[in-house]
Amino acid sequence: xxxxxxxxxxxxxxxxxxxxxKNAALPCIAATxxxxxxxxxxxxPEIEDTGVMFEILKSFGASVKKIKSNTWEIIAENVExxxxxxxxxxxxxxxxxxxxxxxxxxxxxxxxxxxxxxxGRRRLDTHxxxxxxxxxxxxxxRRFEFTANKLVGQEIFLDEASVTATENAVMAAVLAEGHTExxxxxxxxxxxxxxxxxxSMGAKIGGIGSNILQIDGVQKxxxxxxxxxxxxxxxxxxxxxxxxxHGSITITGVKEKDMRPLKIAYxxxxxxxxxxxxxxxxxxxQAMKVNTDLGGMIPKIDDSPWPGFPPDLTSIMTVIATQxxxxxxxxxxxxxxxxxxxxxxxxxxxxxxxxDPHRAVVTGPSSLHGDHLVSPDVRAGMAMVIAAMAARGxxxxxxxxxxxxxxxxxxxxxQSLGAHIKKVDVK
Length: 427
Description:
- The structure is a single chain.
- The chain is an alpha+beta fold.
- Helix content is 30%, strand content 24%.
- The chain contains 14 helices and 23 strands.
- The strands form six sheets. It has a four-stranded mixed β-sheet with strand order 21-22-1-23, with helices on one face. Strands 2-14-16-15 form a four-stranded mixed β-sheet, with helices on one face.
- A hairpin with a 4-residue loop joins strand 7 (137-139) and strand 8.
- Helix 5 runs parallel beside helix 6 and helix 6 (163-173) packs parallel to helix 7.
- The model is unreliable at 116-121 (pLDDT under 50).
């Protein structure tokens, strides 16, 4: 095991390439089960979560081969098992994404309740309801079992715009008999990637990018080559890192359209960037001052389903706000435990009032000092890395496995930007 040791107070500067979108890679990996033919996935981030997903594929009998960096070949010609081994399902929540493809391909899926980040209750009801609408029978006694003799297209109204439930419903519906309409579907860029990949395999999905998806089932899908889009969560994190350390950064491989919801929220903290083609540049000359609402009112940064501000970046915004002049309300609506990490920031010298499990008032700028921190989840862990790099003195961060589940080669990237960070072995 190891921890991160970070000496703060050093501005970062340099250029990195955006990694592939973790949240697109995971469902696209699961979707390879829907065909017997070869699928080549490009721009797959080399992180813990994708590694676990590939191990799950292997457990079913699929051939999984790394062709080159970030490029994988998967052939699921024979699916020998429809049960996800417990040691894998407990590691990541994304293991639930195999339910839809397995039921569509084999008529059965068996798994233990999935693990993942500890950020509060994360209901799975929407997955069950969507698959039941398509004709699957669901048992949740001790473990989850999905069975179906045949899937039939239906009009489905999701009770929440769940990203993973939308993905499961889409993957099941593409091989279902007849027409499926999914209303109140999530529409994030990662769902768009999944739908575009499935269409390249012969699926018939319309309405991509909207909250109403129209799907005409087909009898079978064929192989494809597909490239995952950039990870705008990672991009948003590195922007936060640059401005919090009063540094600069250039990020290549960016999609301007993905950054639009982020630009509004970051602008409330006086942070701007420039995009030319697929190159995003954050300069050192940032206002770093809260832009108040009309009448001088305290502004609010809150999350919502796409194209709203993504909830995975509220932790990052909380840390940035500690380094910005003024007061802002961070309102994380979706997970009731995600904001609890702010007590660690308060211990580092941040001026934050946690109003309730969802809302925090942050006043800056604060002079942070180093501390020993424990990462509770992927995004809060990255937020702690940013705080440590903005702080005076040395910090230690443990449970970094959680961080590396979502950020590719993080230490190496930070070192290339001039960060004083290293891995330290612990007993």
